[in-house]
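User: Second chain of the day. Same drill as before.
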Amino acid sequence: MNILELDKEGILNLNPSDITNFLMPAELLHIAKLLEAYWAYDYAAADEGRLGLHAELKSGLHSDAFFVSRILLKPENIREIIAMQMVQRLKQAGIVLHPSCIVGVPDGATDLAKAIGYILGVPVAKMKKENGIILLDEPIANREAILLVEDICTRGTGFKEGAVAVMRRYPDATFIGVDPVIVNRGGLTEIPIPERGNFLIVPAVNLQVNDWMPEDCPLCKMGSKAIKPKATDENWRLITTSQLKAA
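Assistant: Same format as last time:
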């Protein structure tokens, strides 16, 4: 099966059991683009004067590419495929998977954690975000080997906040020392968590994209404005259409 030759209908009809190899970055990008879950800055359009918008990340960095995992993971078959890929990547890395509980960093990894929990037969505890702060929304009975799951990793900001949320409620909690993610886009290999050590980033795929400090952002210097793509549905519509030619 050549995923790169499938159209959107073909992607939505993929049977998870038919995916026997690891997805390559180009294949995941193809899926994300067809599902309208990926945006990239159009430099050719900028050369023609359509400067448009670019992305401000959770970390505060600016970027010329962005994934919305909520959209990517909405189809059940794609969510299952990616969850299976992440579990297999952990096993490939030699990680012994006997978690006592799985927790997904909200909101992007909430349903992903459920899918991974189903595969492993492990209970899942839910987190929520209130006023921009991540909180543990459900009790964790067994806190001996918690697996914290993230969706997209740039600088590990969300993962750190998720770990802190667990430790705030359960100071005795211990974690499996990994950060399983769909995409590692920031080039990091580990995330340091105070009092818990370094967590190995284990992605389904690595995909390096451009990120800059705001003061160094070349897109800002060109005249493009940065917005937070996930802040609202309208922001996502704006950034994905900002460089299109006027009708």
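The chain has a mean pLDDT of 94.

User: Great, on to the next one.
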